[in-house]
Specification:
CATH topology of the domain at 9-44 and 210-279 and 388-448 in chain A: FAD/NAD(P)-binding domain
CATH topology of chain B: Rossmann fold
Order of helices and strands of chain B: EEEEEHHEHEHEEHEHEHEHHHE
Radius of gyration of chain B: 20 Å
Number of helices of chain B: 10
Largest sheet of chain A: 7 strands, mixed
Structural class of chain A: alpha/beta
Strand order of the largest sheet of chain B: 8-7-6-9-10-13-12
CATH superfamily of chain B: Vaccinia Virus protein VP39
Strand content of chain B: 15-25%
Largest sheet of chain B: 7 strands, mixed
Shape of chain B: globular
Number of strands of chain A: 21
CATH architecture of chain B: 3-Layer(aba) Sandwich
Number of helices of chain A: 14
Strand order of the largest sheet of chain A: 8-7-17-18-19-16-20
CATH architecture of the domain at 9-44 and 210-279 and 388-448 in chain A: 3-Layer(bba) Sandwich
Shape of chain A: globular
Structural class of chain B: alpha/beta
Distance between the termini of chain A: 19 Å
Number of domains of chain B: 1
Largest interface: A-B, 35 and 34 residues
Distance between the termini of chain B: 74 Å
Oligomer: heterodimer
Strand content of chain A: 15-25%
CATH superfamily of the domain at 9-44 and 210-279 and 388-448 in chain A: FAD/NAD(P)-binding domain
Helix content of chain B: 25-40%
């Protein structure tokens, strides 16, 4: 392709998105430098193992057989045989999403909402009520989205609901396929590529880091570890260079995986990204509790739309992936929303574990007797908060960063609650667009010559 | 409570094949784009030569279906095991089906050979065990010079055992003089090669001006391809079919190789129907007796789907495509 005489593209962050971008650009012959602030690749897409044989991820990550095949790691993945979500309501659990339809008031209000005229929703609360009906919205969807986002649903933009896709019929088809095949067919997981009975969840041997290690193969010469990008220098609305460890590196483009508010602060020479400094992410503490025995939860994920509970979601990953815990033991992850520096954020692991177990004991009596300690993973940027206050800016940012040659990718970079497979396909798309723009000036200059 | 059983890593595979294959990423060979959507995820349902899972993708620009990533060419001996059917399609193994196929194929081949001189030179590329050359020797003109080329030692040996002239090489390195071949055959070959435009370019060099190459390949736009699109379509033949064409991508391939399209149409084949069903059954761990009803040696299933595919051919949707490309005369 003849890019070797070009300035490199700087990629900021060596997680799944950054490595996907690097691999693709290199394949197109585009010179790259991949800067990673930390001492190793993988970012959020990594797993942690402890001496007792437990594996922890940042949240319950799955991938699909489709992503594994695309990366050529299918031979090293195990099939997830089942996966299900349930919702806990007044002492009972209901299958999600179809089981909720067995509650008469949910069904009645849901049908009524379909028939009622719908003014354009102004907030997430409006959107949920108009889409699911008042009772399901008020009792389930809104408490969950508020706990998840850390803001009242009336202050959240309607777009927060848009990712909850799949029709009832499609859901039934996928659930039936899952049951008949003994494979956890992806349902409500992938937005970028269609879901189908042939697409199911798998988990890499040894944890999620396998994906990034595969992508990083052959990139050794391009990866700079322990190298945070301090500044992105912009001239006349176009990226010119990055500054790393005090040194300026001229670049043809920058591909950033940094969270939006961080990216906004890195850019020098343009105010186009300033509105993004307001974008907020919901910090989370993932409390991973170890228990004797298995099958504490009725299914892999249990949603808790109860404002009095300290957590809004419980996940027993070994129900879907038995290899994540030693035989005869299990792991339950409780998701606790918090703010950086608040009481929960500062609590010791033991205290957080005790807080969760106290409440779990109310749901599952005598569970305390089986509790064997916990490990807490905290992240200040777990989920994007779709606040109405900056929705206009967010929508604009979805189209473009506002700076020529600056592309923001990845879960944090795109301010999207995208799961791993979507991150992969979206990144490829962004990179194809970038390569097209990198090639465009060459054509111009040839014409000029 | 959810049933729990630790599952194996990767796809089931035969003894001694537990190591993952070396896989390489590729782009569309027809239009050179690196912009494809995932179409199917599968595994080697038929020969179980590796624990890998494979992705078939469709080029967004031209529509070519191709395997990406695909096995490195160094893995050919592994993915074509000694019991691979093309190395040994014999009467002993396939009985009645062998006899019927011989008659059908002989007729089709002679159709393609219409107008050839008595001393014409015919080269079968990817000749396997020499099945088609053998037919030409038996039913064609006695003066025809028949040669085969196949990169596989096993295939070349099997063909040599029939007393045929076979070059064991890739067609690009084949010791046949340029501008000397009247008719080249690529029957169930183009989908197996790593670089179809490169191979056709090499074939073009060997053809006389005005010489023709006959390509028979799976139809990626057939009803069976659509019905079993996501995983089990026999045409994927994971991981041995690297590029799968429809009429439009075959035309584009001819353009790229600077060949003229003489004709392009469908021919009947029950094979992908039978293998699609077989793959579905294998994937569902169906009982062996049922799986055995769907194979290249089961006349009933082959017969039923021959009738179906013949009907589909009438509306231009048969299981195989046959293209005849011609090297321009001047």
């Amino acid at each position: 392709m003849g890019h070797s005489d070009r300035l490199p593209v700087a990629i900021v962050g060596a997680g799944l998105a950054g490595l996907t971008a690097a691999t693709f650009l290199r394949r197109q012959g585009v010179p790259i430098i991949l800067y990673e602030a930390g001492p190793q690749v993988a970012g959020l897409a990594s797993s942690f193992h402890d001496a007792d044989g437990f594996t922890y991820d940042f949240g319950a990550h799955f991938i699909t057989n489709r992503l594994a095949a695309a990366l050529g790691v299918g031979a090293r993945c195990r099939t997830v045989t089942s996966y299900g979500e349930r919702v806990w309501l007044k002492g009972r659990s209901y299958g999600y999403p179809l089981g909720l339809l067995s509650v008469p008031r949910f069904l009645r209000d849901g049908l009524a909402s379909r028939l009622a005229p719908k003014p354009p929703p102004e907030s997430a609360a409006d959107w949920f009520r108009a889409t699911y009906g008042t009772s399901l919205a008020d009792e389930v969807a809104i408490p969950l989205v508020e706990a998840w986002s850390g803001a009242p649903a009336s202050e959240l933009a309607p777009s927060v609901g848009e990712k909850l896709a799949n029709s009832v019929w499609k859901t039934i088809q996928l659930k039936l396929a899952s049951r008949s095949s003994g494979r956890a067919v992806a349902c409500g997981y992938s937005q970028e590529m269609p879901e189908a009975p042939e697409v199911w969840h798998v988990y890499p041997e040894g944890g999620l880091g396998l994906l990034c290690r595969r992508l990083a193969e052959g990139l050794d010469d391009a990866i700079r570890l322990n190298s945070p990008v301090d500044e992105i220098l912009v001239d006349a609305g176009r990226v010119r260079a990055v500054r790393v460890k005090g040194r300026e590196q001229p670049v043809s483009a920058v591909v950033s995986t940094a969270p939006c508010h961080v990216l906004a602060k890195l850019v020098r020479g343009s105010e186009a990204l300033l509105p993004m400094a307001r974008f907020r992410y919901r910090p989370m503490a993932f409390v991973n509790l170890r228990f004797e025995g298995r099958g504490i939860l009725p299914d892999t994920v249990l949603w808790i739309p109860d404002r009095n509970a300290p957590f809004f979601r419980l996940t027993e990953t070994p129900l879907s992936m038995p290899w994540l815990a030693p035989e005869g033991k299990t792991l339950v992850t409780a998701d606790l929303g918090c703010e950086v520096g608040d009481e929960r954020w500062r609590m010791s692991d033991e205290a957080l574990g005790a807080l969760v177990v106290d409440h779990l004991d109310l749901l599952f009596p005598r569970i305390r007797e089986r509790y064997r300690g916990c490990r807490v993973l905290r992240t200040p940027i777990a989920y994007p908060m779709y606040l109405r206050a900056y929705e206009v800016d967010r929508r604009r940012f979805e189209q473009s960063s506002g700076v020529a040659g600056l592309v923001s990718i990845g879960r944090n970079g795109q301010f999207a609650h995208a799961l791993m497979e979507d991150v992969y396909w979206r990144t490829l798309k962004s990179m194809r667009d970038l390569v097209a723009t990198l090639n465009a000036p060459r054509a111009d200059s040839r014409r000029a010559a | 409570m959810i049933p729990q059983s630790p599952t194996r890593t990767g796809a089931p595979c035969r003894d001694g094949c537990g190591t993952p294959l070396s896989l390489v990423p590729v782009r569309c060979c027809v239009c050179d784009a690196d912009d494809a959507e995932p179409l199917a995820i599968g595994e080697d349902f038929e020969y179980r030569t590796s624990p890998d899972t494979f992705l078939a993708v469709r080029c967004r620009r031209c529509g070519l279906v191709y395997l990406n990533p695909r096995p490195d060419t160094r893995e050919l001996d592994r993915i074509y095991p000694p019991d691979y059917h093309a190395f040994n399609f014999s009467e002993g193994e396939f009985g009645f089906v062998y006899k019927v196929r011989r008659r059908l194929e002989a007729r089709r081949l002679l159709d393609c050979c219409a107008g050839l001189d008595a001393g014409a030179r015919i080269l079968d590329i990817g000749c396997g065990d020499g099945f088609h050359l053998d037919l030409l020797r038996e039913f064609g003109m006695p003066g025809w010079r028949l040669e085969g080329v196949d990169s596989s030692a096993r295939a070349a040996e099997a063909a040599a055992r029939r007393g045929l002239t076979v070059h064991r090489s890739f067609v690009q390195d084949c010791p046949v003089p340029p501008d000397s071949v009247d008719l080249a055959l690529m029957i169930a070959t183009i989908e197996h090669v790593d670089d179809p435009p490169g191979v056709l370019g090499a074939v073009r060099r060997l053809l006389k001006p005005g010489g023709r190459v006959v390509i028979v390949t799976d139809n990626a736009a057939s009803p069976d391809a659509r019905l079993f699109q996501g995983r089990h379509w026999g045409g994927y033949h994971f991981p041995r079919h690297w590029n799968l064409f429809n009429a439009s991508t075959l035309r584009a391939l001819a353009r790229k190789a600077a060949l003229d399209v003489d004709s392009l149409g469908g021919i009947t084949s029950p094979v992908n129907w039978v293998y699609s069903i077989r793959n579905r059954l294998v994937d569902a761990d169906a009982p062996e007796w049922l799986i055995r009803r769907f194979s290249l040696s089961t006349p009933v299933s082959l017969g039923v789907f021959t009738i179906l595919d013949s009907a589909l051919r009438l509306i231009g949707k048969s299981g195989l495509l046959r293209a005849i490309f011609r090297k321009p005369a001047a």
